[in-house]
Write a structure and sequence with these properties.
By secondary structure, the chain is α+β, with helices and mostly antiparallel strands. It is built from ten helices and ten strands. The chain folds into two domains: 93 residues, Phosphorylase Kinase, domain 1, CATH 3.30.200.20; 208 residues, Aminoglycoside 3'-phosphotransferase, Chain: A, domain 2 (Alpha-Beta Complex), CATH 3.90.1200. Helices cover 43% and strands 14% of the residues.
Length: 318
């Protein structure tokens, strides 16, 4: 990928360098672009996205940036779109932000307040359809199929998966269709909500944004950042995230098990993806990457007792 071609696409002036990938996610990788106008993050898509999907999600990202949400500014191309084709690769560009490593122990009050501000951004979405990734169970039949495939492939984790399977099926009983009340980020895991060198927070990666229920999104954030670096939730941190969200005017409310449905659905679909990718992997690098995801899924499951403890932590009046 040529640095000047990327810079020209976004009108960023003479370019001096474009790095090799400095960060990689499931759907894209980030390179650092240096031009006479400054330093920028260039996202190269690893999977093909329809142009309309890219423009819709990045338009929401732009609206959040304009509303003062701490997030890298999405830049427009010289043609007014958010994505450009450079050669045969689709890229987007953003202002550069120096991010800290993933950390579920971020300041809970700052996290809760940020999510409240995000939920105050009123940005329409072109459809009310909710992707199954965010609400549908994997289901007993598919889980059993994954276990069978893992056993046939001699997976090193097969016994742990077999032991966990009944509890995975049990917690999926809380999953119900989600009400598409407003546009939400839908991917506020610690990978995407980071600390920065300036001491602030920064929210990145709006690619999964779409219509959702803010009550389910704040529940997911309370789960993720209520752990404080541990697998098990910390009730004090969970309450601190939620209290800060409410104090800042957040519109969502955690009332019962069903509000954790988004969290369970995403964790299960992510885990299922890694499990199937491990079996299908044909090279050591891909297999190692998938195994890391499998180990995280099996080592940090969200089960029904965990759900009940979280709900109790944020709804108890004692």
């Amino acid at each position: 990928m040529d640095a000047q071609e990327v810079s020209d696409a976004f009108g960023l002036g003479p370019a001096s360098s474009l790095s090799e990938p400095v960060a990689r996610g499931e759907l894209g990788e980030i390179r650092r672009l240096e031009t006479e106008h400054g330093t920028f993050a260039v996202k190269h898509e690893l999977e093909e996205w329809a142009a309309a999907e890219v423009e819709t999600s990045t338009s929401y990202h732009r609206a959040c940036w304009e509303a003062g949400i701490p997030t890298p500014e999405p830049l427009r191309t010289t043609g007014g779109t958010f994505a450009a084709m450079v050669g045969d690769e689709q890229v987007r560009a953003y202002a550069w932000v120096d991010l800290h490593d993933t950390d579920t122990g971020l300041d809970p009050a700052m996290v809760g307040a940020l999510v409240a501000r995000l939920h105050a951004v009123d940005h329409p979405w072109p459809t009310t359809a909710v992707d199954p990734w965010f609400e549908a169970p994997v289901g007993p039949r598919e889980w059993k199929g994954v276990l069978k495939a893992a056993r046939a492939a001699g997976a090193p984790y097969v016994d742990r998966l077999a032991e966990l399977l009944p509890a995975l099926v049990e917690v999926e009983q809380i999953l119900t269709p989600m009400r598409p009340l407003q546009t939400c980020h839908l991917d506020m895991w610690a990978d995407n909500l980071r600390g920065t060198a300036s001491g602030d927070l920064c929210l990145i990666d709006f690619d999964n944004a779409g219509p959702a229920d803010p009550s389910r999104e704040i529940s997911m954030v309370v789960y993720e950042f209520g752990r404080g670096g541990h697998n098990e939730g910390d009730p004090a941190r969970q309450r601190a995230v939620y209290d800060a969200y409410l104090a800042a005017g957040g519109s969502g409310r955690i009332r019962d098990r069903g509000d954790l449905a988004l969290t369970v659905a995403q964790i299960h679909h992510i885990g299922h993806r890694h499990l199937t990718m491990w079996v299908a992997a044909r090279d050591p690098e891909a297999r190692a990457r998938s195994l890391a995801g499998v180990e995280e899924f099996l080592g940090e499951p969200l089960l029904l007792p965990d759900v009940d403890r979280l709900v109790e932590a944020v709804t108890s009046t004692t």
